[in-house]
């Protein structure tokens, strides 16, 4: 890697890595705060529908008025790329349809993309990766976000000759959260709506974190990038602290909760009665692994790894992720080495819309973080076979027939599914199981 030294060398040569950011929300603002302190990194363009808000965010991140005056501000990516010198684009809008369009625009100009919008990765990531490959560039996960950090743990495990049993992240979860809406979400966080508004908190975004959708989206991206399997009926969110990871996240045949070895899963920081687990992993990521040889297992014990009672299953974890504050490794890897910090390799997981309540014919779905549906992770083969509606396409579409609470929404349940670049790309995707059979 050696990124800091190599970036500093570029700075001394007057050849900094030039970055354009699309969508200056929380993630990108955190990233922007590090740029003045990172020799060899330069922000040249900001694309945002609300330029005044973007300028305020930069000011909050430590950018003076003189520094901001050096930037290209645009509402459209194409115009920004026409005006600014750019080596890599950070797509951070959070909108899967917009992110897909933006990525394709970059590939057409032979520009690599760091795809912070994991929603697009979950919706059509394998097809986007193929489009990037055809253009001779990369489409990378964003370091600092949990999927890229999980990808690194999986890669470390396999490169050391161990078998991955499970990999994933922690979150705050109770089954009742699946029914949460933007109107009820703050009660679960112990906040008043007034305090949340004062803090600039987006209720739809926080609702996606809470109701399980964001976890499903991130685990779909991880499965597609690593080849790990996903549960047939959705994530289980078992309660587990760090010292219980190897015991809980092992196959059911071994006393754990997994359908089989080699799966993604998310652990809850809460017991089902709402008590917080003392050594929870709410903000972190983990990998559970095993070794085939008794020598390595003996080393697990000698070097203090946390294992299950048998000593066969061990765990490593990272307790925190810092999202935009630690994005630079992705930028450097993409530009300096032409290497993604995680990218979709195959289509294994899909996130589909599940009704939060009884929905009537004629109702309009409001997508991720809304009041009508939440996103459940299922195998891609099941999604394709049953014609399930991906959560990324479940916004602003109307139902032609009623859907009961807890049921998965099918595309045939809709009056119409509008065309989009993302939908076009999805039609080209083949589930990994079907590809292998073919």
Structure description:
Helices cover 37% and strands 17% of the residues. The chain is of the alpha/beta class and 438 residues long. The strands form 4 sheets. Strands 3-2-1-4-5-6 form a 6-stranded parallel sheet, with helices on both faces. Helix 6 packs parallel to helix 7. The chain is globular. The relative contact order is 0.14.
Task: Kindly report the CATH topology of the largest domain.
Answer: Rossmann fold
Q: Count the beta strands.
A: 15
CA-CA gap between termini: 38 Å
Assigned CATH class of the largest domain: Alpha Beta
- Helical content, roughly? 25-40%
Structure classification: alpha/beta
CATH evolutionary superfamily of the largest domain: NAD(P)-binding Rossmann-like Domain
Number of helices: 18
CATH architecture of the largest domain, by name, is 3-Layer(aba) Sandwich
Q: What is the C-alpha radius of gyration, as a whole number of Å?
A: 22 Å
Shape field = globular
**Arrangement of strands in the largest sheet:** 3-2-1-4-5-6
Count of all domains: 3
- Mean of pLDDT: 96
The amount of beta strand, in percent, is 15-25%
Query: What characterizes the major β-sheet?
Result: 6 strands, parallel
Low-confidence stretches: none
């Amino acid at each position: 890697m050696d990124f800091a030294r190599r970036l500093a060398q570029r700075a001394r040569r007057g050849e900094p890595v030039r970055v354009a950011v699309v969508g200056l929300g929380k993630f990108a603002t955190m990233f922007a705060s590090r740029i003045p302190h990172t020799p060899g990194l330069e922000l040249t363009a900001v694309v945002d529908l609300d330029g005044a808000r973007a300028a305020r965010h930069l000011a909050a991140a430590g950018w003076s008025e003189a520094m901001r005056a050096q930037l290209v501000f645009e509402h459209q990516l194409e115009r920004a790329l026409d005006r600014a010198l750019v080596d890599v684009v950070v797509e951070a809008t959070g909108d899967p349809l917009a992110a897909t369009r933006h990525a394709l625009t970059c590939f057409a100009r032979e520009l690599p993309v760091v795809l912070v919008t994991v929603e697009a990765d979950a919706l059509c990531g394998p097809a986007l990766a193929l489009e990037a490959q055809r253009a001779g560039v990369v489409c990378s996960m964003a370091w600092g976000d949990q999927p890229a950090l999980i990808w690194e743990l999986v890669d470390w495990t396999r490169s050391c000759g161990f078998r991955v049993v499970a990999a994933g992240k922690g979150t705050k979860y109770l089954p009742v959260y699946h029914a949460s809406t933007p109107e009820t979400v703050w009660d679960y966080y112990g906040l008043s709506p007034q305090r949340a508004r004062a803090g600039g908190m987006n209720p739809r975004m926080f609702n996606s974190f809470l109701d399980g959708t964001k976890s499903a989206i991130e685990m779909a991206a991880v499965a597609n990038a690593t080849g790990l399997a996903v549960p047939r009926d959705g994530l289980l969110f078992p309660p587990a602290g760090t010292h219980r990871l190897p015991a809980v996240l092992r196959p059911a045949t071994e006393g754990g909760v997994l359908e089989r070895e080699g799966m993604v899963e998310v652990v809850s920081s809460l017991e089902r009665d709402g008590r917080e687990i003392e050594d929870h992993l709410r903000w972190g990521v983990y990998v559970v692994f095993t070794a085939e040889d008794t020598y390595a297992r003996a080393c697990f014990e000698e070097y203090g790894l946390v294992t299950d009672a048998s000593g066969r299953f061990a765990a490593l974890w990272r307790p925190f992720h810092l999202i935009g504050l630690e994005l630079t490794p992705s930028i450097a890897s993409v530009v300096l080495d032409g290497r993604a910090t995680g990218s979709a390799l195959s289509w294994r997981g899909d996130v589909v819309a599940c009704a939060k309540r009884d929905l009537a014919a004629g109702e309009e779905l409001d997508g991720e973080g809304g009041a009508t549906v939440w996103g459940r992770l299922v195998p891609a083969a099941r999604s394709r076979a049953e014609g399930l509606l991906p959560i990324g396409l479940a916004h602003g579409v109307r139902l032609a027939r009623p859907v009961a609470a807890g049921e998965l929404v099918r595309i045939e349940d809709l009056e119409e599914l509008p065309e989009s670049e993302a939908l076009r790309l999805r039609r080209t995707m083949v589930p990994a199981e079907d590809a292998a059979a073919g």
